[in-house]
Amino acid sequence: MHSTKATSAVPQPVHELRRFDEVADELLDVLVEMERRAHEASEHYDTAPWQRENFALDLPGKRELSLVATVSGRPAGFLIASRRPDGTHVHRVATDPRHRRTGVASGLIAAFLARTPGVVTLVCDAGNRPALALYTRAGFRVTGTTPEGKLSLATGATTHR
Questions:
Q1: Cα dist. 132→106, 122, 141 in Å?
Q2: Would residue 160 count as lying in a domain?
Q3: What is the pLDDT of residues 19-74, one digit of tens each?
């Protein structure tokens, strides 16, 4: 017989999902700082990180639809969305670089889709392969390209080439 080396599993942080309207006032500055760190750590993020006014912008349904994932009470990621006449649009998904690859983004998206009926849309940089893989696993399909060259994606959509 041979012996196998026991490996101890690294415990994953417990993510608590909270509605944006429950934490926006309390955690707004922390979300802005997390957004800055996520922006700096990514090659495929927008040209500038969101500022306080982006988070504070009043959009239809945004405060109720949007989610913040926390670990020990601190934001680990967020998903900002709003209602549109043709469905719901995800404006931003970000994960704190310290919590990447721990299921934060997939948990946010899964919880969001589970409580959001109808078509959900988002836009993603065509070169952001990790994000595209995440969105595809969640059920999004490419529906077209924006004038800026980003990919438009939607749930329940057929891919257009």
A1: 12, 11, 9
A2: no
A3: 999 998 889 999 999 999 988 888 776 678 889 999 999 999 999 999 999 988 88
**Is residue 72, in this structure, part of any structural domain at all?**
yes
Position 89, amino acid: H
Region of 103 (left: φ > 0; alpha: ψ -120 to 50; beta: rest) is left
Domain count, the chain: 1
pTM for this structure?
Answer: 0.85
Q: Which runs of consecutive H residues, i.e. helices, occur in the chain?
A: 20-41, 52-56, 62-65, 104-114, 129-137
Domain with 71, as residue range(s), is: 16-155
Neighbours of 27 (CB within 10 A): 21
